[in-house]
Structure formats: C-alpha cells, structure tokens
Write a structure and sequence with these properties.
disordered N terminus, mainly alpha, globular, Neurolysin, domain 3
Length: about 500
C-alpha cells in the first residue's frame, strides 16, 4: 500500500473512532499552508528543504481528507443530523478551493530544480491528480464547479434521506433490495409501490436537479473549450484513452450476448416462481422460497451505494475502474469460498453470477441513456424518460411496468443517479465487472488457483490504471470479442442456460 494511502487510512480510522473528535478544518489555514509550502519550494536551496515542504503539505492534505471522510460517513449514518449535513455542504464548496490550491502546489513541484531528487517515499505519497481533473476544476470554472458540487450533493442527499412506505412503516432505499427479494409477492409489490409513490412525489425536484447539473456542465465545457465531457470523464475514471467506437463495441457485445442470457435467466425465474411473466417488482426474487443469504449480496448495488461519496473530477476518486475490478474480484473470491464450504454454496454462486449479469445489463443501459441525454442536451423530462423506455425495450424486453405508473413512464432512469453525479461511472463499473468475471472464469476448472492469482495481482497492480491492470492480469480489453465470447460460453455452461 502506498505511503499516502496508508497515512490517509490511519488518519481516517483515528478520526472516525469518535464523532467527538471532529472539528471542521479552518479553510484559511489549509489554503495558507499550501501557499506557504509552495513558496518554500520555489525558494528552496536544497533537496532536503524541498522534501520537508512536500511532507508538510502532505500532512495538511491528509488531515483535511480525514476530516472530510469523517463528516461524510457521519452524514451517511445520520442523514437527518443537520450538523453533519452542514459539514458536508461546507466540504462541497471547500473542495474546489483546496483542489485548486493543491494543483498550484503540485505545479511548483514540477517546476522545482530538485524534482529529480525527491525521496522515493515522498514522491509516492504525493496525491496523484490526472490532467483531466485539473482542466475541469480551475480558477475560471471555480463558481460553476461550486454550484455543481452543491447540486450533486443535494441530489445525493435526496436519495440518502428518501423514505418509502411499505408494510406500515418507512424504509430507506438501501433496505428495498431485501424486500424485493422476498418470496412473498405481496411484499415485493408493496416495496416497489412505495418507491413508485416516492418517485411520483419527487420527480419534478429530481428533474430540476438534472437540468441544473446539465446546464452547469455545459457552461464549464464552454469555459474550458471542450466539445464533450466524455473524454474528461473516462480519463478521470481510469479508462485511459477510451474511444467512442470501443464503447459502442462493448455495448453491442452486451446487447448481443448478455441481454439474451439475462432474458433467459428471467424466463427460468418466472417459471420457478410460477408466473406467466415478470413484473418489475419480481426482478430480484430468484427463488419461490427464501433465498440463501450471501456475503456478496451487496455487490449488485455497489455502484449506487458508492455514489453517496462521489463528486465529479475529484483527486481522490481517480482509477475507479481499477478499484471496481478488485472489488468484484474480492466478491468473486468470497462466493467461490462459500461454494466450496457451505451446503448450498453452489446455489449461492449461481445466484450471484445471475445477479451480476442483470447488473451488467443495467449498467450498460444506464450508460447509453446517460450518453444520449448529455450529448443531445435533453433538458425536457418527458424526452429523457421516453429515451429510457426506448432503451428498456432493447435491454429488458420482457419486464412489465403496468402496475407501477412511475416506472411505466421511465421512472427507473432516476435510479441511475450515480452516473448523474459522476458521468461514466456505470461504464467504468461494467468494465470492472466483466473483466473480473473473465479473470475468474479462466480459472473455473481449478478454482483453487483463483485465490493465489488474485493475491499476486493485488500485490503488483493495485496502483495501475485500468489498461495497465488488464495487461498485468493477462486480460484483453472489455470490448474484445474473442474474450467476451469465451466468457459467455463459460457462464452459460455454469448456469446451464
């Protein structure tokens, strides 16, 4: 683990042990500290003094990020707590000033005559911003970035604080997956009805957030003279120099192979549940009896839960695709261990893989919808929802919404809010998942080799960007048709489709 990550994790752990330790950072002191160390680097007469200034700046950064993490985690745990809500709002604005100041500090290091003499430990501990995030967050876009952060934070909060009514009580959105997996159809219907009613009540507010975000980003793109957000977004998420045709090739493979597999999974699912066809509230119920609990149940919802702590073009979230790859590898390792040690382990494994296929379809459809709505500047809510419904006919042709009016008019599009906050997130997550599955299924005949291969990869590749990570894992790119077909064949055989 790099020194910077070790320091930050240690500081976060210490800060999070007690909410009584929290004290909002003095933004002036933070910015003055970066400014002071930047000046010292410019005036430094030796490599030793340069290293001391860099080390001091790293300490400033680490303390700031630890307090930021503490406020964010406390806000997620207690979304109704007005104190931590105000702290998160403070950081939404302060982050911009800190990021601009940090960029100036890092530029001073680049210009230092002692740059080549930095100690290895300090060089490794420096924050690693990508060039794209520096283009997005700069002095000329400061006010627009602040407005964007406040809007995306408000969007996150409305979902974090959402309560849906079901079975005589209110439930958070995070609790809905368990209700929707219930073997009792009346519970599933009531759970989704609660979400349906919540969306009908809040759709105008959500639509306004979307328009505000879209307009702000168009203004930022104009100021930095970029025609599209996508190259910026993809680079920032660790997807290197992804091209449009490569994204389209991946999308085509998902439609051609994974969508039919997922449709067949749902056909067998409806047969097991003795249903003529599946309603939208049946999608997460795979068995007529209570489904076995699994440690990887959260994986299906990983992307949405992570959205609560995300903002666009922030230094500390680069390489999302690589992080997602290791997240899914860890889940796959867990489920493989379960399949070997528990009586119903094989069933849990097959259920997990089935859910992941459904998740791949959802991620790809959401990414395509986001791409269309941004590129066509869709500010009209009806146009956006119709675009979503058109894609549903391609990706989920067998799912019915005739009992849920919010979803019948495209309401599921609101649940892709993670991509609203950070464009390209769903595509990055889809790349991570399909690559992790390819890595695992290459070892399906001797699962015992999977754990050793996973550990070896973690040891040498955790800090690589996604392209380099796949090379280290001896994998092709997610849109490689040969690798894709091999994976589809292996999973189809495993699931007996």
């Amino acid at each position: 683990m790099p020194e910077s990550e070790s320091r930050l994790n240690e500081a976060m752990t210490k800060a999070n042990n007690s909410s009584l330790d929290y004290l909002r950072p003095d933004l002036k002191i933070v910015l003055d500290g970066f400014r002071r160390e930047r000046l010292r680097i410019r005036l430094a007469m030796s490599a030793e003094s340069t290293n001391r200034s860099i080390n001091e700046a790293i300490q400033i950064w680490t303390r700031y990020m630890a307090l930021r993490a503490q406020a964010t985690l406390a806000h997620h745990a207690q979304p109704a707590d007005l104190f931590y809500k105000s702290e998160v709002e403070f950081f939404a604005e302060a982050d911009i000033a800190v990021q601009i100041s940090l960029q100036s500090f890092l530029q001073a290091i680049q210009n230092s005559r002692f740059q080549s003499e930095l100690s290895g430990e300090i060089a490794q501990a420096l924050p690693k911003p990508d060039a794209k995030s520096q283009q997005w967050v700069c002095e000329r876009t400061r006010e627009n970035c602040i407005a964007e952060r406040h809007t995306t934070q408000a969007l996150s909060d409305i979902f974090l604080e959402a309560k849906t009514f079901c079975l005589g009580q209110n439930w958070s959105l995070a609790s809905l997956p368990d209700l929707l997996a219930s073997p009792q159809r009346s519970i599933r219907r009531a759970a989704l009805r609660g979400l349906n009613d919540w969306l009908l009540l809040h759709d105008e507010t959500l639509d306004q957030y979307w328009v505000d975000i879209l307009q702000n980003r168009q203004t930022i793109l104009s100021k930095i003279r970029k025609p599209s957000i996508w190259p910026l977004a993809w680079q920032h998420l660790g997807l290197g120099h992804l091209e449009i045709d490569q994204r389209l090739a991946f999308q085509t493979l998902i439609r051609r192979f994974i969508v039919p597999m997922a449709t067949e999974i749902r056909r067998l699912q409806s047969k097991r549940l003795s249903l003529e066809y599946l309603q939208d509230y049946d999608l997460l119920c795979f068995l007529p009896l209570a489904q076995p609990q699994s440690d990887v149940a959260i994986s299906f919802h990983h992307n949405q839960h992570q959205s609560q702590n995300m903002h666009p073009f922030r230094f500390d979230q680069a390489n999302w695709a690589s992080q997602g790859f290791f997240h899914y590898l860890n889940d796959l390792n867990t489920i493989m261990q379960v399949s070997k040690t528990e009586e119903d382990g094989d069933l849990k494994r097959l259920l997990a893989v089935s859910r992941w296929l459904e998740w791949l379809v959802w991620l790809t459809m959401s990414d395509e919808w986001m791409h269309v709505t941004i590129e066509q500047n869709m500010q009209d809510s009806k146009q956006r929802r119709n675009a979503w419904l058109d894609l549903e006919t391609l990706y989920f042709p067998d799912v019915h919404h005739n009992q849920m009016p919010a979803f019948a008019k495209g309401g599921f599009s609101y649940l892709s809010f993670g991509d609203w906050i950070v464009p390209g997130r769903n595509l990055a997550d889809a790349f991570s998942l399909i690559s992790a599955l390819a890595f695992a299924y290459r070892r399906r005949k001797v699962w015992s080799t999977f754990e050793a291969s996973r550990i070896e990869l973690i040891e040498k590749a955790t800090q690589l960007d996604f392209n380099a990570l796949l090379t280290a894992a001896s994998l092709e790119m997610p849109w490689d048709e040969t690798q894709f077909k091999q994976l589809v064949f292996a999973i189809s055989s495993d699931l007996e489709l």
